[in-house]
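Q: Structure tokens for this one, please.
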Amino acid sequence: MEQNFANHARIVKPYHLVLGFLLIVGLIGSIINLVKSVDTNNLYSASLLVLIFIICLLTAWYARVFPLKAQDRAIRAEENLRHYILTGKTLPAGLTLPQIIALRFAPDDEFIDLTKQAVSQNLSVKEIKAAIKSWKADHHRV
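A: Here is the predicted structure, written as tokens:
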């Protein structure tokens, strides 16, 4: 499938939708169970169940966030090298990491001008991606 501005976001349905839904439903159910167990002597196990769901939510969240942070650093290094190869200079200091990450979709012939435009006009990530005429796909994003 050809990647472009409209379809470049990556949603892994079993992870983002199914797991996320199940964890939220489980947390809500465990909280309801905890509230109902106030009348009984079952507070300890009900509290542990809530704690387990909170731990699972945090684990799922960080299992997604940590690899993205590492990948963002790699993208910054790759785009800095690409800019250096094309211009003999490193990326301008005024670029933010999200802007650099958005610029990775620009082909070499659009990259330099779009980089200058992103700095001078402080373009948002969405504006950078929308300005790309010939999308350079990235199918390796985590």
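A few notes: The mean pLDDT is 91. Residues 106 and 136 are 6 Å apart (CA to CA).
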